[in-house]
Amino acid sequence: MTFSELGILPALIAALERQGIVEPMPIQVEALPALMAGKDAYLTSETGTGKTLAYLLPLLSRIDTALAATQVVVVVPTHELAIQIQRQVCDLVQDAGLPVRTLLLIGGTLMQRQLDKLKKKPQIIVGSPGRIFELIDMGKLKMQAVRSLVIDEADRLLVGNSLDPIRKIISAAPARRQMIFVSATEQPECAKELAVLAPGLTTLRAGLGAVNQNIDHTFIVCERRDKPDVLRKLLHALKPKRAIVFVHRNESAELIAAKLAHHKVAAADLHGAVDKSERKKAMDDFRGDRVTVLIASDVAARGLDIRGVTHIFNFDIPTESKAYLHRVGRTARAGVKGHAVSLMTDEEVRLVRRYRSELGIEMTQVRLREGVVMSVEIPSMTRGRLPDEG
Question: What is the dihedral of CA 239, 244, 248, 253, to 10 degrees?
Answer without folding.
Answer: 60
